[in-house]
Write a structure and sequence with these properties.
By secondary structure, this protein is α+β, with helices and mostly antiparallel strands. About 30% of the residues lie in helices and about 25% in strands. Helix 5 crosses helix 8, helix 8 packs across helix 11 and helix 9 packs antiparallel against helix 11. The longest helix has 29 residues.
């Protein structure tokens, strides 16, 4: 009898567990939470030219690309929901009636009122090309000068990746040298107060690089990435954006920091100097320049421009930096230049000179040999450091007026007067060769970064070349040009690969 009672008790317990399991399974089956479809219908959204049906990722996110220049602040959504109550930010929603701002991802909370369970679904709209949009309004005043600012307003629609910037007062003017002569103009924008742009640390001045002659649109971005890989103290940061001038689309730009001495850019003490080697014909009247005794004898036409801090001629500060550079050159080009105590090594920070050289040589940057945008900095009592890096639109073989830089083979920066002399020291050459393998071993990383940027520009480049139809045509100073953006990228990657292999053979 006792055995039978125990068996019956086990049977009842097993049956109870089965019934509980069935109830739980029934709860899940009978009370599901699901958004079956999500759309924006043109009949409910006048700014849409056609219906937009979002794609579900199978988990919790609906996404779509909207290429039309429509107002996505007040889009009315249509959806098929299983579950019951739908809310956005605790506000109840009605399909086909409620509108929301889809400039940022919107969370739809679906609640099953029967058993109080909820689930979040995320709506992500990639607007226009997916890049952030910068809207500049000058009241239709043209931007025709590199000297005179035009006043106006600017706002940023950050899209999925960046923060918005509400309307701000600003001033804008042209910038650049050869790039200013292109139809798609580069600009410098200035806020009255320090302002963050595209998650880049706040400051007043921001540069808009048009990349008109670089049909990949990414040479500057890749070179700056290599600078970030290096041992240089500071490399400017940049992000792609779509720029609209007075409500007209003006193309894809690279928005970058300006090379300046600031605590969140090139951080130098009050007595630190930022100097640029430039052409004498390109300096401005307010610039403070001098001609070293040796460099300009080798590279005629260059001057040293003291960019910061502002100072006057024939002051103690002016004489200090001028005398120090002349003393450095005297040591570099002197008979005992290899001496570690009295030669060039007493004057320069070797890691910065090596890394600056390698980034410039790998990219074969035409301007870095002796032309312009050659920056270095000096703090009295310390050694001269090369950098920051700047100006790479005519790099990676994108130049036709010099056979030396058109092809991936051959040295170029070695012709720079300082580096030509430095390579006469086996110790410096050895340091360069050893450090080169750091960049060489990261070739695949650099190529992946090209692909990553190209993916980011997948839709942007199409819009840009609708606005500026230069594919398949010559733009100064293209040595080669192709009919498609994909061919431009393939050429760039092939050039980088061949360049690395050629340098590997030389340095090995």
């Amino acid at each position: 009898m006792l055995f039978g009672f125990r068996l019956k008790k086990k049977y009842i317990l097993l049956l109870t567990l089965i019934l509980i399991s069935c109830v739980k399974e029934q709860d899940v089956t009978d009370y599901p939470i699901e958004i079956k479809s999500f759309s924006f219908l043109s009949e409910l959204n006048p700014s849409l030219t056609q219906d937009v049906n979002l794609t579900f990722n199978g988990v919790d996110t609906f996404s779509a690309e909207i290429n039309e220049l429509c107002d996505i602040k007040q889009l009315v959504a249509s959806y098929n929901v299983v579950g019951g109550l739908v809310q956005v930010d605790s506000v109840e929603q009605t399909s086909g009636i409620s509108n929301n701002d889809f400039n940022k991802p919107v969370t739809y909370n679906v609640a099953n009122t029967t058993n109080s369970t909820t689930k979040n679904f995320y709506i992500e709209i990639s607007y226009f090309t997916g890049l952030p949009r910068i809207l500049i309004n000058t009241g239709n005043a043209p931007i025709v000068s590199k000297e005179d600012y035009v006043a106006g307003f600017v706002s940023v629609k950050g899209g999925l990746e960046f923060e918005d910037l509400e309307v701000q007062e600003m001033k804008i003017k042209g910038r650049g040298n050869s790039t200013w002569g292109h139809p798609k103009k580069p600009y410098q924008l200035k806020f009255s107060d320090k302002t963050e742009m595209l998650t880049i640390a706040e400051d007043k001045k921001w540069l808009f690089l048009a990349e008109y002659s670089d049909k990949s649109l990414i040479r500057n971005k890749i070179a700056l990435y290599m600078g970030a890989m290096s041992r240089l103290d500071y490399t400017p940061k940049g992000e792609f954006a779509e720029v609209f001038l007075n409500n007209e689309y003006n193309g894809t730009y690279l928005i970058t920091q300006k090379v300046e001495v600031k605590s969140n850019r090139l951080d130098l003490p009050d007595n630190g100097y930022l100097v640029e080697i430039d052409w004498e014909t390109r300096v401005e009247s307010e610039d403070v320049i001098f001609k070293p005794t040796i460099y300009t004898q080798i590279s005629s036409g260059n001057v040293f421009n003291i960019k910061e801090p502002a100072l006057d001629y024939n002051t103690a500060e002016f004489d200090l930096i001028k005398d120090h550079i002349n003393n450095f050159e005297a040591a570099l080009f002197g008979a005992n230049f290899k001496d570690t105590l009295t030669g060039y090594q007493a004057y320069i920070d070797l890691p910065s000179f090596v890394d600056w050289y390698l980034v410039q040589e790998i990219t074969k940057n035409v301007d870095a040999r002796s032309f312009s945008s050659i920056y270095f900095n000096y703090i009295p009592g310390r050694k001269i450091k090369m950098g920051p890096l700047w100006d790479f639109d005519l790099s990676f073989g994108n130049v036709d007026y010099s056979e030396a830089v058109r092809y991936p083979e051959g040295f170029w920066i070695k012709g720079n007067p300082w580096y030509k002399r430095l390579f006469e020291d086996p110790a410096f050459e050895s340091a360069v060769k050893e450090r080169f393998f750091y960049f060489y071993n990261n070739t695949s990383v650099i190529l992946d970064k090209i692909d990553e940027n190209a993916k980011q520009l997948k839709r942007a480049q199409g819009k840009n070349y609708e606005r500026w139809p230069t594919l398949g045509t010559y733009v100064w100073p293209n040595p080669v040009y192709f009919n498609t953006y994909e061919e431009e990228l393939s050429h760039l990657k092939d050039w980088v690969t061949k360049r690395m292999e050629w340098l590997h053979g030389e340095f090995n």
